[in-house]
């Protein structure tokens, strides 16, 4: 061995000396060069020897035989003592031959904070069969228009028809006049006024005949002659409405009317003004039976003697009554165009 080292060896040197002593007691041979190189690597420290307990360096207490550690022989070299463990067994601490790294520990990286994690998905509920479709509710209907049509038959004449026109004009009401052909020829000026003031005109036959008793050419003449008379008196207007006298309708009549692309018109309220009915009775009748889309039957010529005096008296009263009840007055053509007429009226 090379020269002995001073007792003031370092901590690691003392541990190796202990290992050497244990090895020598067990009869192991160590190369001096290996020991010297290890001892020389550790500088001596004044405090190292005093701080170590003999048990920490593997020196058994006096009188206690040390268990011989196993040795390993590296290929082509001297045997190397096995790593020593602490008394009582267990894995020995590793022996380092280099000085500890004086560099400071790396700075801790900033805490990235909690990482958002997707919550565990709950199991999907069992799929339900699709619910049966609910029946669609009908669309709410528009507010029903409260419309009425005033109609006047059997004119025109030179006495009552002008009075009717005056009242209608005063109250701003439009009406429909179903005229008789023979009366049209006698009163062309009244016909012109009817049309000029915005009223509607319908065909009420040529001679006020019962059309259910006619057919063929006789029936056709009752309609056609009146059409021509109105056209002549008004300067070109041709009615598209027909009302049979007495409301008497037959299949041949309707067939002919439809062939000519005309509309047959009946009524829903008949106060029987032609019969001389009192004003109060006619007023009550009309107020009771008036309905939206209804048609009121009155006259501007004919009937019993002086019967239409009651009609002239009634007309302004009933117009005011029905307006207060929320009704508006329209012509038959207006009803057809707006589809507001009672379905039983237009044929």
From TrEMBL:
<feature type="compositionally biased region" description="Low complexity">
    <location>
        <begin position="76"/>
        <end position="85"/>
    </location>
</feature>
<protein>
    <submittedName>
        <fullName>Polysaccharide deacetylase family protein</fullName>
    </submittedName>
</protein>
<feature type="region of interest" description="Disordered">
    <location>
        <begin position="42"/>
        <end position="144"/>
    </location>
</feature>
<feature type="compositionally biased region" description="Pro residues">
    <location>
        <begin position="120"/>
        <end position="129"/>
    </location>
</feature>
<dbReference type="GO" id="GO:0005975">
    <property type="term" value="P:carbohydrate metabolic process"/>
</dbReference>
<dbReference type="InterPro" id="IPR050248">
    <property type="entry name" value="Polysacc_deacetylase_ArnD"/>
</dbReference>
<keyword id="KW-0479">Metal-binding</keyword>
<keyword id="KW-0378">Hydrolase</keyword>
<feature type="compositionally biased region" description="Pro residues">
    <location>
        <begin position="89"/>
        <end position="113"/>
    </location>
</feature>
<dbReference type="GO" id="GO:0016020">
    <property type="term" value="C:membrane"/>
</dbReference>
<dbReference type="InterPro" id="IPR011330">
    <property type="entry name" value="Glyco_hydro/deAcase_b/a-brl"/>
</dbReference>
<dbReference type="GO" id="GO:0046872">
    <property type="term" value="F:metal ion binding"/>
</dbReference>
<dbReference type="GO" id="GO:0016810">
    <property type="term" value="F:hydrolase activity, acting on carbon-nitrogen (but not peptide) bonds"/>
</dbReference>
<dbReference type="InterPro" id="IPR002509">
    <property type="entry name" value="NODB_dom"/>
</dbReference>
<dbReference type="Pfam" id="PF01522">
    <property type="entry name" value="Polysacc_deac_1"/>
</dbReference>
<feature type="domain" description="NodB homology">
    <location>
        <begin position="146"/>
        <end position="330"/>
    </location>
</feature>
């Amino acid at each position: 061995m090379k020269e002995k080292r001073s007792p003031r060896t370092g901590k690691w040197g003392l541990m190796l000396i202990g290992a050497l002593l244990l090895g020598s007691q067990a009869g192991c041979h160590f190369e001096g060069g290996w020991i010297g190189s290890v001892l020389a690597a550790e500088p001596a420290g004044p405090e190292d020897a005093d701080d170590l307990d003999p048990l920490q360096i593997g020196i058994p207490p006096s009188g206690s035989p040390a268990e011989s550690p196993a040795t390993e022989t590296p290929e082509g070299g001297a045997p190397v003592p096995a790593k020593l463990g602490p008394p009582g067994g267990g894995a020995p601490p590793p022996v380092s031959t280099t000085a500890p790294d004086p560099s400071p520990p790396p700075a801790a990286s900033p805490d990235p904070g909690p990482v958002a994690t997707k919550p565990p998905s709950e199991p999907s509920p069992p799929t339900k069969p699709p619910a049966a479709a609910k029946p669609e509710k009908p669309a709410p209907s528009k507010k029903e228009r409260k419309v009425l049509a005033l109609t006047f038959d059997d004119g025109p004449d030179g006495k009552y028809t002008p009075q009717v026109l005056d009242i209608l004009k005063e109250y701003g009401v439009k009406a429909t006049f179903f005229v008789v052909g023979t009366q049209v020829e006698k009163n062309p000026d009244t016909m012109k006024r009817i049309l000029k003031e915005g009223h509607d005109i319908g065909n009420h036959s040529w001679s006020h005949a019962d059309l259910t008793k006619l057919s063929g050419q006789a029936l056709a003449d009752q309609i056609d002659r009146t059409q021509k008379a109105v056209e002549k008196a008004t300067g070109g207007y041709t009615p598209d409405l027909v009302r049979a006298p007495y409301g008497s309708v037959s299949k041949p009549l309707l067939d002919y009317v439809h062939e000519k692309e005309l509309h047959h018109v009946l009524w829903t309220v008949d106060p029987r003004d032609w019969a001389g009915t009192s004003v109060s009775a006619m007023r009550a009748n009309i107020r009771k039976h008036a309905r939206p889309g209804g048609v009121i039957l009155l006259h501007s010529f004919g009937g019993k003697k002086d019967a239409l005096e009651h009609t002239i008296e009634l007309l302004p009263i009933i117009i005011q009554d029905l307006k207060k009840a929320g009704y508006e007055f329209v012509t038959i053509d207006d009803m057809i165009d707006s589809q507001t007429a009672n379905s039983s009226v237009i044929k």
